[in-house]
Structure formats: C-alpha cells, structure tokens
C-alpha cells in the first residue's frame, strides 16, 4: 500500500474483553463485498492500493470490524466475487468485463473522474493557475476515504482540461491552468473560386464541394456571424488545420452537460457557440450511410440522453440523398420520440450566403 493511516484510540476503562468471535458473519461479509463493488464502480476499476485506502477506514469507522480481518484472506474473497484484469492491474465487477476476451467493457461514466474534474475546474476557474500540491490539497480536502481519487485519475483529468505553465518567471516549477477555450483564428481559405461560383451564381456547382470544403465554408460564414466554432474531435485528428481553428471544448462542466452528452456533442462535425452556450450543431454527410450514423447515432443518442437540450440540429446532405435522408430523420422511432422535429435537413445546393444567414 501507498500512504499511511493514523488510527487514534481512546481507552475505555469500563469496557471488558468479551471474547467476541473473530469470524465474519454473513451480513458483515456481504457488507464488505458491497463496499468493494462500490469502490470498483466509483473508480472505474481499482487496484489494491485504492481498494485498501477506501476499505480500511470503512471497516474500522463504519463497521468496527477491522480487528476481525487480520487473519482473513481478502485475495480469496476478491477472486471469488470479482475479476482481476492483469493488463490493467485492477479489479473489476464481473459485469464490467468481457469474459471471453478478458477485456474491460467501455465505461461511460466514472464517478472519481467526474468529481475530480468538477473540483479542479471550479478551483482553477477562480485561482487561474496553481501548483500540483495546491491542486492535490483541494481535491483531498473535498474527496476523502473511498471517494479519494488515485493519482492516475488526477493526472488523467489534469491532462484533459489543463495546460502546464511555469509558476513564475524565476522558477522551474510547473503549475496548471485550464486550457484556453477561446478560438485561435487562422485564415481559412474558402473553396476555390471556380467551385464556389455555384454558391452565388448557379447552385448546380455547389454539389462539387467535398466534406472538408463544406466545413470550411460553414466555418467562415459562422465566424463572420460572430459565432465561435468547435469542429468535431474526429475531424480535428484527421485535419490538423481544423485543430488550429477550432474553439476548444475541454470540460462538460463549462457547458453544464452530463459527460455522456458532452462526449457525443464534441464529435459532431461543427458546433456553433456563444460563450458557453451551444446554439447549433451541424453534421456534414456525403452519403446515405454517414447521414444514418449522424441521425441515429449522434443526434438521436444526444436528444434521448437529454430531451430538454435546446440545440438547433442541422444535417447537410447531397441533393441526390435528400429523400433518403428525409426517410431516416422521419423514421417511426424518431417521429415517436420527437427527434425528427429537432433536425433540419439542408441540401448542399442550398448553402448560399443568404440561406446560411437564415439558418444560423
């Protein structure tokens, strides 16, 4: 184990040793198993160090049975009820593991990361920047015992939402601040004049625009209209220029969204932002298959997970795919769940300047 425990005792002269059995009752054993399961799910899997840090105070302070487990084989108890994944060096509940592949299933929500992110975001929003020691102190002041995150979790959250900065001009010590969320605008060239001619003269040539060109065109219109623009994480990874011009979205907390909804949103091709408010979402599709995925994977999952979400959702499709896209958006399931009313289909040929202004 890493770290120390300090246990304080007070002598009670009236208390006599009553020869209490050191064996665990079924009720006590079930309580221990329940606590272990809680720890595993809270941390998204837990190593032995985190397990003991969370379990021992519970056994002593809450259950008063720490003296009963000194000669117990906790490893055997764990093996009987949980799954050890060697690759990650962690224990998981049986439902968290694919038993055939012996790999951990995707975990949508890890409480330890969520609470750690909330504390760091709130702390650095007020303080601007801080040393690792200061960040650890505020985390461990607010999250104790079984809710205390491991150092790996803290580093993961810091890497996700913070940049490292020198603490002072005359120090080699590094601190952390929240990642810059203001967009860094880089000149984006609109599609070549020959291709763009259709946008303002004849709509027929617009269909020659490719996926990235449509994103560039919409980006220029949106920024001209005063929006910040976030370009989807997948698109940023494919096209470095998109990473340079995209407004950063680092934390679901800034936008007041549940983590699962936030993770879906940041993958959408384009988000139009006003400060921390997401005004519109745009998916640019170049085939019926990509239109189906945009509607039934991203938009549907987003609105089902958070029905109250007020975002204008647009689906850009090639003219020849409009009818198919209309069928996808207006499927029985989407009509029943009210999804179809939240998505506007736009033909590529409609992406002329006066229409874009109306859309945005």
Structural notes for this entry:
By secondary structure, this protein is an alpha+beta fold. It folds into three domains: 26-104; 111-178, Arc Repressor Mutant, subunit A (Orthogonal Bundle), CATH 1.10.10; 193-359, no CATH class. It is 44% helix and 14% strand. The protein has 15 helices and twelve strands. It has a five-stranded mixed beta sheet, with helices on both faces. A three-stranded antiparallel beta sheet has the order 5-7-6. Strand 6 (162-166) and strand 7 form a beta hairpin. Helix 1 packs across helix 2 (48-62) and helix 4 crosses helix 6 (151-161). It is elongated and about 85 Å long. The N and C termini lie far apart (56 Å).
Enumerate the spans where pLDDT stays under 50 for 5 or more consecutive residues: 191-205
Radius of gyration: 27 Å
**Shape type:** elongated
Element-level helix/strand string: HHHEEEEHEHHEEHHEHHHEEHEHHEH
**How many structural units, i.e. domains?**
3
Count of runs of 4 or more consecutive helical residues: 15
Q: Kindly report the spatial arrangement of strands forming the biggest sheet.
A: 8-9-10-11-12
